[in-house]
Amino acid sequence: MAPPTRVNMFRRLIWAARLGVLLLVVVVAISLDASSSSSHRNEVRQQWQTKADDISLKLQSSILQNIQTVWGLAANVSIQPDINGQRFRELASVVISLAPELQNIGLAPGFVIRHIYPLEGNKAALGLDLTAQSLSPEQIDALLDSRREVFSGPINLVQGGQGLAGRIPIFEQATGEFWGVVSVILDLEKLYSSIGLDRLEDGFNLALSSSSDITDTESVFFSTGSIPWTNPVKSRIRMRGTTWMVFAEPAKGWPDHPRQPWIFRGSLFALLAIIAGGVFWLTSLMSRDREMQRRLWGLFELAPMGIGLFSVHSNRLLRANPTFESQFGKSVQSLDFFDQPLDVHGEPLANRPGVQETLREHARISGLEGYYMAPGHDEPSPIMLHGLQLDNYGNEPVVWLITEDISERKKVDHLKNEFISTVSHELRTPLTSISGSLGLLANNAVGELPEKASKLAHIAYRNSQQLTFLINDLLDMEKLVAGKMPFRSEHYVLQDLVHESVENIATFAQQRDIDLQVSELPAVTVHVDRQRLNQAITNLLSNAIKFSPAGSSVDIFASQREESVRLCIRDHGEGVAPHFREHIFQKFSQADASDRRASGGTGLGLAITRELMTRMDGTVDYESIPGEGATFWLELPVAG
């Protein structure tokens, strides 16, 4: 039994395991919730990033489309460097009609604007030197080196609003000399409208800036709101000469969790509850199992009967309680010890199934008696064995063997047997005289009796015979147990012995309307006491006839084995109840012990048969299926 400190330690470990698992599950649940929220935020940001990239792409595409239209005008000028104002206005009007986002087009030879269309509202731009106003040296170098358009802006327009300035370089086709530039102004309001920035959905915060820092408010030239920005997504618009940034984010800020977080969190909570409940249930089972083990080992240690735990594989003794050790000391180290029982005289008990063989066949034994030599004793002690084989004990099958010292019971039985023997002997002589006298009276040997007196005499005679049978059985049993019954074994042919026994009981079978069916028997010789074997066969036949329904049969057959022959007697009655197996060969045992049982008898027949077969080196046993009859057999060694 475990000490209290170990029990308390185990309980602390159980609670520590419960709290540890609960804490782990909570941490995992929080981590999963945080991961889910982070994943949702990333998904939302990715959606907004896609929107910002789409706006950036549309804006850049619209700008390039407008500039591409102007390239046709630049191509004409490169062919006709001396273009006049009339021809310029004709070409510019066509370009303006094709690119409605253009506010004006200027022609600037040597970077000085000489012509502009439309002239109305743009006269102030005539004579403007672009190198002094909006083109930096770097932009001029990029313009000349790449021969591609260069952008500036956004710029504040004189006529109001903001615009994006684009300069397209012109090189004379004939000489390749730099001629000047075509300067165009794109109206940003029209540009925004063309890509739908004035029709953004509610909750869409958007800003355009010439800086990559959203906090640089002076660089922001378009915004749908004035709220403080938290962490907007960004998309870059790269144009030669300038770069714009598109910033976007939800007006209500980035979500901390999905729209319906309690669905996910509720699922996590349910999972947490299930796991915590499962852990608590499992640990409770462990605690109960531990408590049961403590109680079991407490009973094991304090049991008044010996208990030994043996390995099935090696037969080795694994553990024994103090009672077992006091019974056998150190002499028992293997289960083989119990396969060598002795009889009451200290002689080896032959032809009895061993403990291991019985366990292999039935996985349990009960009430198996034998004499074993105990330490410090000159004579063997009577021990009753009970055992059970378990196939799951730390992955090693084991045998629990209970050893009960029945010395006191044997002493009581001996006193009882002496008393019964004495009484039986004292009763036998007067009972024989009484039975004989009643027989004479019943058979009218002393004169014919009146009908009522004759009936009473027959009843008395029949009951006196029954008492005689009982006393004879008691005396036979006493002689067998005491070893006083003489046995004279000789060689006999089994067929002759069986037919003799069948003839002796044929009259009883006819009275019960039972047909005795003898099958062909093997021609074997057995070494037995003729009278005692006849008595054993008669006992089995008598029982089979008693418990068979009228009109049925009793089958007698035999099967020969290597060194033995089995004589079987099968009836077609109700069979033997499974719970009666442990008691069927004990003295005074009857399945129906009430005074209303259908079949009479002393309950000694099978006990006597077992003792007789033991003395003749044979065995008796049976098999039965309830409701389908029973088959009893006598197994005898074949004579050599």
TrEMBL record:
Location in the cell: Cell membrane; Membrane raft
Record-level Gene Ontology MF annotations: ATP binding; phosphorelay sensor kinase activity
GO cellular component, one term: membrane raft
Name of this chain's protein: histidine kinase
Membrane spanning stretches: 262-284, 296-313
Keywords, in A-Z order: ATP-binding, Cell membrane, Kinase, Membrane, Nucleotide-binding, Phosphoprotein, Transferase, Transmembrane, Transmembrane helix, Two-component regulatory system
Main location, first listed in the record: membrane
Catalysed transformations (reactions): ATP + protein L-histidine = ADP + protein N-phospho-L-histidine
Species assigned in the record: Marinobacter algicola DG893
N-terminal signal peptide: none
